[in-house]
Please model this.
Amino acid sequence: MSKPVYALVDCNNFYVSCERLFRPDLRQRPVVVLSNNDGCVVSRSNEAKALGIAMGVPLFQIQDAIRNHGIEVFSSNYALYADLSDRVMNTLAAAVPAIERYSIDESFLEVSCLSGTAGQEDDLQQWAVELKAQVLQHTGIPVSIGLAPSKTLAKLANWASKRWPRTGGVVDLRDPVRQRKLLALAPVEQVWGVGRRLAQRLRLMGIEQASDLASYDQRLLKRSFNSVLQRTARELAGEACFPLEDGPERKKIIASTRSFSSRIYQQTGLAEAITLYTSRAAEKLRGQQSLCQVLHLFIRTGVYDGSQAQRHQITLELPYPTADTRDLVQQALQGLSRIYQPGIGYAKAGVILMELIEPGQYTPDMFKPQPRPGSDQVMTVMDQINHYQGRGSLRLGRLPANPAWRMRQAFKSPAYTTQWKDLPRVR
DNA sequence: TCTGGGGTCCTAGGACCC
DNA sequence: TCTGGGGTCCTAGGACCC
Model:
């Protein structure tokens, strides 16, 4: 069995690249995409990065820069991004036997089986260059590729391919000598699994660069932190500890939480929002064929509202495992009436479905409340109608078509690829 | 005025049991 | 005066990821 080789394929500035696909006039220009509610910057073009626009910065803090530099701003358009993501991933999946879709814009590929087919050492590197060109040709989305004997090193190789444009977007890190060079250049917080807090603690121990972490005493790492960081260090040293995950697994919890476009004071407004979020979560639940046993509900004030920040929450056991929107909404609204307090301006609410099981794992109990007859059929029809007619076409009566608290999306592009009415026109 | 959302994993600490 | 030890389960909270 030969050593594994992982390729990490990552879409460059993915959301911005999606927006540019149908707006060629935006190439070479500073572009940013915002989070839900037009809150923060979550994707930036290279030109926007060069202007000093930071990841995660709130929109209102960069209004001057937007005006002065003519930065193009977009609300997030998840229908578009999800569709283009599927196209990229399909191209990748067709090229290799094993792929792990890690996020909307990244996949790990296991490519050791492709190496040495022509008996040359640089086969794989050339293969990656061609794959990158193929994705661009099929989808119009630019990607970067890192090759390495572990996932953590592949992530670092990918980082290097973006950090140094001269690499052409492909970095091959199979050679141990090159590994050592890059590890010495990479700050420890660039390592996959090392965030801000961990980096702080590591620096106190004199671990500044990725190379310091790779060569640190592993037992000490396990004792001072945990076994995950220990494995990360081994991965940096070239040993594969995190295998390719075959999935997608069933989710263990399903959440739908959202900030409101403006504060909600009345229980009726909160009830509308809770109904929507619960309906969304229930759709996801049925999408993975699970039943839910426990529902957690929270409402909270803004985290930036000062000292009187409040969070009210409740965890509810359902009378029987269910995926019926009506059951879940009924429970959630009962929960709401128990935690709602008048006179408070709520900024955000959320529903989290927990203790998910498969239908076969559940034995009905004739002495307990019984599920609604025909629930499966009703929900199936509802999901089908919403699939073909657009989300929210068929919904519970409590939900207005256009509620006052609805998410702010002032800069949204058309759903070019998923709505007939938004199909681009060629003149 | 305006600061995202959805996940997973790990640990610490308490309750409880034998 | 001297007051065990180990295992399991649960929960809350923290850290990380994109």
Chain A has 14 helices and twelve strands.
